[in-house]
């Protein structure tokens, strides 16, 4: 696929007004590219939050959401969540709803709670649907009911979606709450876009070792991405690469080609893991393969330390498993004490492997923190003995450090239940330092 065509399509999509409908065939025809090229570009646009694709609706241009309002949902996203279809008001699918109201009361009482940009969840009550549209709210009709043509026409005129779903009201409220809850969790996850250094220093393919030395002198940094004439990252150059080279030697000949890159939406955890495993100190950040920033090992470590201090608002599975366990110190390590709850079990009532892995890895992290190693990445976990643990059994997880080097550590992990040994494991971790 031609990168130039790909970029041309992305730029075209960015230029469209919010709410515009997008199709592979239309883009292929208008921009004179193949349908395969158009399809791949649209998928990329969806990945970066420029468009959204919905069953029975198609692909539309949407407004990119920042982290500040990630918990807000558009009407287009509501359709995906409730597996719905649009009866009218397609022009407003890109709009964001600020609240949803359940229509389980008389219309006069309901009016007090309906405001502009709300979503009224209601069954086959035409008058309630009409009143909601008059007040500037969209409508979600439950139970698979259709509505009158007057309502559909009114929705089109006001650009307020009327959505149909086969689910009942209780299920709808649960699904929407779950979606908002998931977004709150995602909001707390640190991404590359939160820590990157924008407008970074870089070298071009025409640069020489002399240019590199001058940039080192000006910036006090020693690692720089290398870009071509289109600002696409083609390499990275460090002190090791230029050591002993003549001042007139081309950077293109010395640089490390095809370096690891990340995007704005890459998680900090993934970046940390890559840096540890690949031994990388600096990673270029790209958008459509063009350089937009860099992240350094020091930036990543600082963000990890800050993240450990910040309380989470929303509970992840990890939090839910650990919530019933308390931590205490033992000679050479730590111990987690708790009980196998119903949520931690598999389909036959025993402790699930996923829940046990959460206990093992978090016990190891706690032991490493006690040894003053705050930032670690799991390298390998080996479980070499295991017996089933039944529901509601008390368990204790002991983590003791076996060996600790400058960059690696090994932790011995043991789980006891009702006085019996039920699991033995060995965890290796790499330490993320400055």
Oligomerization: single chain
Shape field? flat
For the record, what is the CATH homologous superfamily label of the largest domain? Hotdog Thioesterase
**Strand residue percentage:** 25-35%
Distance N to C terminus: 39 Å
**CATH class wording of the largest domain:** Alpha Beta
DSSP strand tally: 23
Strand order of the largest sheet: 18-19-21-22-23-20
Q: Can you offer a commentary on this structure?
A:
This protein is of the alpha+beta class. It has 4 domains: 5-61, Winged helix-like DNA-binding domain superfamily/Winged helix DNA-binding domain (Arc Repressor Mutant, subunit A, Orthogonal Bundle), CATH 1.10.10.10; 75-188, Udp-n-acetylmuramoylalanyl-d-glutamate--2,6- Diaminopimelate Ligase, Chain: A, domain 1, CATH 3.40.1390; 193-305, CBS-domain, CATH 3.10.580; 317-431, Hotdog Thioesterase (Thiol Ester Dehydrase, Chain A, Roll), CATH 3.10.129.10. The protein is 36% helix and 27% strand. The protein contains 16 helices and 23 strands. It has helices at 3-15, 24-30, 35-47, 75-82, 107-110, 126-134, 149-158, 169-188, 192-195, 209-219, 239-242, 251-254, 268-278, 297-309, 317-322, 353-370, and strands at residues 21-22, 51-54, 58-61, 73-74, 85-88, 96-97, 99-102, 118-122, 138-141, 162-164, 197-198, 203-204, 224-227, 233-237, 256-257, 282-287, 290-296, 326-330, 333-339, 376-386, 394-404, 408-417, 420-431. The protein has a 6-stranded antiparallel beta sheet. It has a 5-stranded mixed beta sheet with strand order 5-10-9-8-7, with helices on both faces. Strands 12-13-14-15 form a 4-stranded mixed beta sheet. Strand 22 and strand 23 form a beta hairpin. The longest helix has 20 residues, at 169-188. The protein is flat and about 75 Å long. The mean pLDDT is 84. Residues 196-254, 255-310 form the CBS domain. It holds the Pfam family 4HBT. Keywords: CBS domain.
């Amino acid at each position: 696929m031609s990168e130039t065509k790909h970029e041309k399509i992305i730029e075209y999509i960015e230029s469209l007004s919010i709410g515009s409908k997008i199709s592979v065939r239309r883009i292929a025809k208008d921009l004179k590219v193949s349908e395969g090229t158009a399809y791949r570009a649209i998928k990329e646009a969806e990945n970066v939050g420029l468009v959204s694709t919905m069953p029975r609706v198609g692909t539309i241009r949407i407004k990119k959401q920042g982290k500040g309002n990630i918990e807000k949902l558009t009407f287009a996203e509501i359709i995906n969540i409730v597996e719905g279809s649009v009866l009218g008001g397609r022009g407003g699918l890109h709009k964001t709803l600020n609240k949803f109201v359940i229509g389980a009361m008389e219309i006069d009482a309901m009016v007090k709670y309906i405001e502009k940009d709300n979503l009224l969840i209601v069954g086959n009550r035409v008058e309630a649907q009409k009143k909601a549209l008059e007040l500037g709210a969209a409508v979600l009709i439950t139970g698979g009911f259709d509505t009158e043509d007057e309502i559909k026409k009114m929705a089109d005129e006001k650009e307020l979606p009327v959505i149909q779903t086969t689910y009942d009201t209780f299920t709808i409220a649960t699904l929407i709450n779950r979606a908002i809850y998931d977004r709150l969790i995602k909001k707390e996850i640190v991404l590359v876009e939160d820590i990157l250094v924008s407008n970074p220093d870089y070298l071009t393919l025409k640069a020489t070792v002399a240019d590199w030395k001058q940039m080192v002198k000006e910036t006090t940094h020693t690692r720089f991405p290398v870009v071509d004439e289109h600002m696409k990252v083609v390499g990275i150059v460090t002190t090791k690469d230029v050591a002993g080279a003549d001042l007139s030697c081309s950077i293109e000949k010395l640089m490390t080609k095809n370096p690891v890159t990340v995007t704005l939406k890459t998680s900090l955890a993934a970046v940390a893991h890559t840096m540890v495993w690949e031994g990388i100190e600096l990673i270029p950040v790209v958008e459509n393969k063009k350089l937009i920033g860099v992240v350094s090992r020091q930036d990543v470590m600082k963000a990890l330390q800050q993240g450990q201090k910040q309380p989470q608002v929303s509970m992840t599975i990890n939090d839910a498993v650990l919530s019933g366990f308390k931590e205490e110190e033992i000679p050479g390590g730590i111990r987690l004490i708790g009980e196998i709850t119903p949520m931690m079990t598999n389909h036959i009532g025993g402790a699930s492997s996923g829940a046990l892995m959460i206990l093992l890895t978090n016990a190891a992290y706690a032991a490493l923190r006690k040894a003053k190693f705050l930032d670690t990445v799991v390298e390998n976990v080996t479980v070499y003995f295991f017996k089933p643990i039944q529901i509601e059994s008390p368990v204790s997880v002991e983590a003791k450090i076996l060996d600790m080097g400058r960059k690696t550590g090994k932790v011995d992990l043991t789980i006891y239940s009702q006085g019996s040994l039920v699991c033995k494991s060995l965890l290796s971790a790499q330490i993320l330092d400055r």
